[in-house]
Amino acid sequence: MKVTSPFRKVFDRANRRVRGLWKRNGSYYVQTTLIDPKTGCKKTTKIRMPDASSTDEAKTEAVRLRDKIAEGQSFYGKAGPDFKTYREHYIKTALKKPKTMYNENYFLKAWESFLGTETKIGQIAAQNVLAFRREMIETGYSNRTVNLHVITLRNMLKMAKQEKYLAILATDGIVQLKILQKEKGLMTPEQISAIVTEALRNHSRSGESFADFVCVAMYSGGRMREVLNLKWSDVDWVNDQLVFRGEITKNGQTRRVDMNRHLKNQLLCMAAKPKNSDYLFPSDRTDKPIVSFKSTLRKIRDALDLPKFTNHSLRHYFISMCVMSGVDYLTIASWVGHKDGGILIGKVYGHLNSPHTAEMAAKVNL
Predict the structure, then answer these.
(1) Chain center to CA of 85
(2) Helix crossing, 261-271 with 207-220: angle to 10°?
(3) For residue 302, how many other CB atoms are within 10 A of its CB?
(4) What Cα–Cα distance (Å) separates residue 351 from each residue in 57, 184, 285?
(5) Where along the chain do its domains lie?
(6) β 17-24/235-236 pair status
(7) What is the DSSP letter of 289?
């Protein structure tokens, strides 16, 4: 059994302590501070210098190593840490919402399976990215899903570049796969009326709350999570606005939706009911909001044979009605939380505005 001796201090010819130098088992070590990729915290460690055979050589090598560390290199070498180690570091230290990190970790594990756990992040090349994309497409994944995998890898490599493990990214220059925007199928008022009726008639426990949710969502354009987390303090009766706070929105930014008459009437009806919670949609068991209506939605969808009905259908309905009512895209974008100034709305919902565009075309004088 090999016995490891303890570290010993190193002294020069004048018997003065050489700061930061140590010796063990005949090898010289330099003590320095590095960023631990597992924790993102500074860590004091000793790095072996196998080429140093004397104190003078060790002093020279120590200066060289410290310069490299200052330039961004680490004890992992030029290729950086292995993929698994850095993935775990990224998931722990990237400041994103828990759901986002869960999804990104899922995507990165697919990369890990493809590249191998021992592959260094600095060894990943554009050829690996293209090969991964090709394999996913051949397996049957959609272009959108493939793009999300590549975007997630790029996010992780960007952090590696910031931490100076990388100089360039393997994803640089790789263009996203094209995604064909499908025209959104528009639900009819009769279908939504049938959904509300079904909820009230045949779902005694959650039906009334679900019916209220359907109306608030279709009149405000809010996502399910956003609507369910609304508080009565978010209803601005003075300015006739519904406030979606940053902590409940998808992009973390507060937005205000001006109340149309349908939304205001719906909120007034709900406000007239007895309240025992700060939330518009409180849970029966706790003073917290209802987590989800997915189970109720699925039962109603099956009962009415509406396979394409989802909670997002209500958001699409709101946007569609706004477009067909002639509301400008910039205003709609501000209501629903799009940061592109209405570009996406124009691409996806523009066909619904044909009467308006035809009217504009009639004004053209050539």
Answers:
(1) 21
(2) 150
(3) 11
(4) 74, 10, 45
(5) 8-70, 83-162, 189-362
(6) unpaired
(7) B
DSSP string, 140-192: T--HHHHHHHHHHHHHHHHHHHHTTS-SS-TTTTPPPPP-PPPPPPPPPHHHH
Scan for tokens 């004890």, then name that residue: 75
pLDDT along the chain (366 residues), means of 10: 74 91 90 66 78 91 81 58 90 86 94 91 93 95 94 94 86 89 74 94 92 96 95 96 94 94 97 91 86 92 90 90 90 92 82 68 76
Q: Is 49 helix (H, G, I), strand (E, B) or coil?
A: strand
Q: Which CATH architecture has domain 189-362?
A: Orthogonal Bundle (1.10)
Separation of alpha carbons 159 and 153, rounded Å: 10
Rounded to two decimals, what is the model's pTM?
0.61
Written out in words, the top-level CATH class of the domain with range 83-162 is: mainly alpha
φ, ψ of residue 140 to 5 degrees: the values are 115, 5
- Angle of CA points 247, 251, 256, to nearest 5°: 70
- State residue 117's pLDDT score: 82
Looking at residue 39, what is its pLDDT? 56
The values of phi and psi at residue 202, to 5°, are -120, 10
Burial of 357 (0-12, 13-18, 19+ CB in 10 A): exposed
Name the residue among 235, 225, 231, 232 with its Cα closest to residue 293. Answer: 225
- CB atoms near residue 202 (< 10 Å): 11
Please give the pLDDT value at position 165. 83
In angstroms, the CA 54 to CA 27 distance is 9
Token pair belonging to 146: 């493939």
Task: Write the Ramachandran bin of 49: left for phi over 0, alpha for psi from -120 to 50, otherwise beta.
Answer: beta
Q: Which residues contact 226 (CB under 8 A, 6 or more apart)?
A: 244, 248, 249, 250
pLDDT on residue 1:
47
Q: Count of alpha carbons within 13 Å of 248, Cβ hemisphere only?
A: 19
